[in-house]
Write a structure and sequence with these properties.
single chain; 195 residues; five-stranded mixed sheet; two-stranded antiparallel ribbon; elongated; binds zinc ion
Length: 195
Amino acid sequence: MQALDDLVGLLTRLPGIGRKSALRVAYYLLKTDTSFSEALAERIRGLKASISFCSICGAYTESDPCPICSASTRERSLICAVEQPQDVVTIEASREYRGLYHVLGGLISPIDGVGPEDLRIRELVARSSGGEVVEVVVATNPTVEGDTTALYLKRLLEPTGVTVTRLATGIPVGGDLEYADRLTLARSFRGRTKL
Ligand SMILES: [Zn+2]
């Protein structure tokens, strides 16, 4: 059945969805009310129209600048550099951090052909050089790419007089920020060290 095969083909492109799960989803949609698949299709269609990137920090937002960048209650002397937009949500959930964010949009990875110029590093340097920023907390994952990116940022940012710190060892080596629990993340922020 072509319609089913086409849907399964698309679903398997989603992260964490194999052929088996895709088939289960497809059969579920076939069985369930039409109103459900219509609502789902509508949500998917509207997602990118209503959520975009903050022009300052690069996080996902419904308004530009995002609520964090525009809040007067946030510490403007502190910028936390993260790999991807969803890391902002993870760190916000820990309720430990009150500064601003900067989404890099990836990590330096020569093997994958990702260099510093492919990331939002120039924007971070510009934001950090205004005199208001005292510390940049690098919250990249403790992987080779995360370490490389952190050291690159340190070399680039330190001449501007900004202190560059890295999250403490709370996140397991090779682990993922996304899967760190709130408490671990909170501890990592408190125990961050100068790079
Ligand atoms: Zn923002």
